[in-house]
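Posting this for the archive.
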Amino acid sequence: MGDDMGYAGPELYQRVSNYVARSLPRLSERVAELYRGLPPTTDAGTYYTEYLQLPLTERKERAERTRQVYELLRKQRPGTAADQEKHLWAVQHARAIHQMAEGFAFDITDQAQIAAMMKYRDQAMAENVAWWHKYTGDRILLSAHNTHVSYDSFDVRYPKTQGAFLRDALGKDYVSIGFSFYKGAFKAFGTDDDVMRTYRVDAAKPGSNEETLDKPRQEDYILDLRTAPESARTWLDKERVTWNIGAGWPDPTEYTAAIGKAHDILIHLHDVEATTYLGTS
């Protein structure tokens, strides 16, 4: 299940509208009016591009409309257990729609607003995971970039991470597992042309976290940072240069991180290989 505040397709709007028509017909006209013109009619990429070109005032107005639908549904009190289950999902669908609209209602020409948007994004992701955990009772393995699952953000673009929000919500029931590697290949979008390709880095930088982590005779290992000896903790809690490879490469920024403050467990790999991209069909 995806947890990001990304593309809310037309089927999501339809699910909300269908629920309202069946279970809350008195609200159908109001919901239809609030959602008018909002469901996507193009592919996700085109929708994103066109949406962000809308005036900020219009994006804020759209977010206000999606918020009203979300709040309207959230305040309803269904009767039977079956109705409650349907209502639960309808509210979450409306919430996902609003998360997207709210996330796009920030001023992307302002660096401070971009940081605020990223904080909102991580909060939304955490809320979706916590919601899923609460209402399904499932144990969850959350897969995301180190920057998102950690407690201590090592990227100024992310003021508070999904991991920090989840620790606030779940306490010690949330365990952050970080990955590190010494060298290898990975898939990324070119930062100058946005084309996905395979990149390779030959070795971690001298003095970096990864250089030291790669020195044990065991090339690949798991380290429980919570029970590491005091001497190791002293090293782990110090901030130093680290790999921070996300969706785009090359990235000229030099990132630093204190691994012991970012995660509970670390998985270190000596050498990694890029995934095989299967395409979108």
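The mean pLDDT is 94. The beta strands are 177-190, 196-201, 221-224, 240-241, 248-249, 256-257, 265-272.
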